[in-house]
DNA sequence: GATAGTAGTTACCTAATGGAAAGTGGTTAC
DNA sequence: GTAACCACTTTCCATTAGGTAACTACTATC
């Protein structure tokens, strides 16, 4: 069965490269929270407490860590506005939009998989 | 800046759904190994020891666990051939090819991100 | 002066992930 | 019969992720 798939995942060298690439991507995007956080901020910029409310169940400690991590990888930006008191607003970066396709595909797959599992049970 | 992105991630309800979907997908595909394993088996079916060799650094315990998990989620198939001694060959399933787009996007992103980080350092 | 909100930090704890090393039960080759 | 291969399993351990709760420093409001 040499089907269409082989057009996209062709030969051994390219697949070894793909394997390494996928590993590298997972290394940066690991954990429960990073991709959902980026997605949330892509939808709209938010303050710390607003993120906590939307991303149900994340603790302030974990949220603070994840935000720092994402900032180090250029995936979000922390803006401090000199109001009184200061407002701190997190926003998606131009670079974070390079994750758009991954997020779209993950969203489709997650929805489809949920339906598949529901159907089976 | 109401740009192209808004065509794909439009309103609040749809984004809440997308968030849930991404969460569900990550729940199934979490960890360092699952997506690389699926990718490896999409490239070609393999035996246990062959997988260990290709996926550098995975221990037999972890590999056995991950393979069971993936099988439960219909993402790989464990075939036992009645040779002497029996050969056990793991292969990708039709369902695992629904991850193809995610893997392609992750591979592109991982490669691009590696270059970006290299460029910065 | 007390209360509440904002944006976290700190200390402590548990659970899950993952790794090393050895063992198991079978077969095959020398 | 001994060594090696296959496909794991078992045991033990270290690391990490993630959660709870309390606390901080500041400001605003009642």
Description:
The structure is a homodimer of 121-residue chains. Chain A has one domain (32-120): Orthogonal Bundle (Arc Repressor Mutant, subunit A). In chain A, 60% of the residues lie in helices and 12% in strands. Chain A is built from six helices and three strands; from the N terminus they run αααβααββα. Chain A has a three-stranded antiparallel sheet with strand order 1-3-2. Chain A starts with a helix and ends with a helix. The relative contact order of chain A is 0.11. The model of chain A is unreliable at 1-7 (pLDDT under 50). The first copy, chain A, binds a DNA duplex (30 and 30 nucleotides) through helix 5.
Uncertain stretches of chain A: 1-7
Q: Biggest chain pair contact, residues each?
A: A-B, 49 and 49 residues
- Do you know the CATH topology of chain A? Arc Repressor Mutant, subunit A
Our Rg estimate of chain A from Cα atoms comes to 18 Å
CATH architecture descriptor of chain A = Orthogonal Bundle
Which descriptor suits the 3D outline of chain A? globular
Give the spatial strand order of the biggest sheet of chain A. 1-3-2
Overall structural domain count of chain A? 1
> What's the CATH C level of chain A?
Mainly Alpha
Strand-pairing-aware structural class of chain A? mainly alpha
> Which sequence of SSEs, written as H and E, runs from N to C of chain A?
HHHEHHEEH
